[in-house]
Amino acid sequence: xxxRVIFLLIFAVAAxxxxxxxxxxxxxxxxxxxxxxxxxxxxxxxEVVALNGELSYEKNxxxxxxxxxxxxxxxxxxxxxxxxxxxxxxTRMMTDGKVKKGELVGNCYLVASGDPSxxxxxxxxxxxxxxxxxxxxxxxxxILDLSVFDDxxxxxxxxxxxxxxxxxxxxxxxxxxxxxxxxxxxPGSEAGRPCYVDLYPRCGAISILNRSVTGKGGSNVSxxxxxxxxxxxVGSLEIGDEPKEFMQPVREPHAFxxxxxxxxxxxxxxxxxxxxxxxxxxxxxxxxxxHRSKPLxxxxxxTLKESDNLYADALFKKVGEVRYGAPGSWQKGSRxxxxxxxQKVGLDIGEMIVVDGCGASRYNLVSAHQMxxxxxxxxxxxxxxxxxxxxLPIGGVDGSLKKRMTAPFLVSKVRAKTGxxxxxxxxxxxxxxxxxxxxxxxxYVKSGREIKGKIEDxxxxxxxxxxxx
Length: 469
Fold this sequence. Notes:
Blueprint: H1 2-38, E1 43-50, E2 55-59, E3 64-65, H2 71-83, E4 90-95, E5 98-100, E6 103-105, E7 108-111, H3 120-132, E8 137-139, E9 142-145, E10 180-186, E11 196-200, E12 208-210, E13 213-214, E14 222-225, E15 231-234, E16 236-237, E17 244-249, H4 253-267, E18 271-272, E19 276-278, E20 286-292, H5 296-305, H6 309-324, H7 330-345, E21 366-367, H8 368-381, H9 385-390, E22 414-421, E23 424-431, E24 435-442, H10 448-466
Parallel strand pairs: 6-8, 7-9, 8-18, 9-19, 12-15, 13-16
Antiparallel strand pairs: 1-2, 1-24, 3-21, 4-7, 4-20, 5-6, 10-11, 10-17, 14-15, 22-23, 23-24
Helix pairs in contact: 1-10, 2-5, 2-6, 2-7, 3-4, 5-6, 6-7
């Protein structure tokens, strides 16, 4: 009887080993065929590991690739580790004066914290608290304290022609409405009349040249920035067309905030007698207004699901500022993230380059093995694992994967971060919370959509079919 039991155990182990070998062989063959069919000349690095530790597939996994937005995974984890999931950015209004009979005699200091989510409603919250503190008139200046970050708004290794777009709005200590202005263009009252153009938030320093017209000829209106800084609205809308919205970044965020604050003071019946300047908050001040952001765990949702570059870069500089002191900078952010990856995750940072938070820099270099090692560490050991995973796009459901992996057998099976630049595509994350994978594709000339569908999504299909346990 005992010998029979031993025989059955040996047979079961052998059968399981054969099954694993068969699955591994299938994965290797199917992925190689997928790459060969899609683009055999592309530079591809892949690693696939079952979260129980079993290596299922690797191809050039120790070679380094430009990872694109997958750098955001490192930044999000470093921010959670250093700040905590419940961390809130605080934008404060301080004063060195006193309020008497509604008049504040002295200066006010708007102290920025690098909050990437600050909006007009947040500034109004601060102003309402000022009103509650009895302020009806300010007989002094408003000083914008932006010292939390340095004034280098563009990251190292960014392409010069990536600027002046919503995705690359400038980063400094104060970020208001994504440091962008929303243009809403509506048809005019009758044919031949200019289109209506509304701005949000309203501010006085924006100059618009409206060359748009209402009438027949199609709906082709657009908003462009001219060389002199003005915005030009061109094209046409037909009567009855829905409004068109355009986001344009500001070039001087502090001047933008200054204009918006003046408008908000006026709207809230606060007379402002002074000027808006950039400077440092002095000692011996008291707080008369504050706005707190949502918790970091919620800020990570747009950072990862929507792959928001400004959010990621603000977090990058923030961890640098918290770890090494103000002002936060690209260099301090790089040092803080790399220290986290070395000291907490156990990666060899001498074998990788991370210089920005959003991944737009082509200086960044990461291997598939390093990324999968990070993903496995997150799954096995990271205290904030659930917060990080909850912020990842879900295939066929939301974020940058909403329109991908929509086939019924793939929907909701993949949680992964995307990365896209010209000639660069990547997908790194988890399949069924059983597999960690990293796919880097560089050096292709085909469309990014084709690479994503025929390589990245197809590999996820292969892995799902393999039923790796």
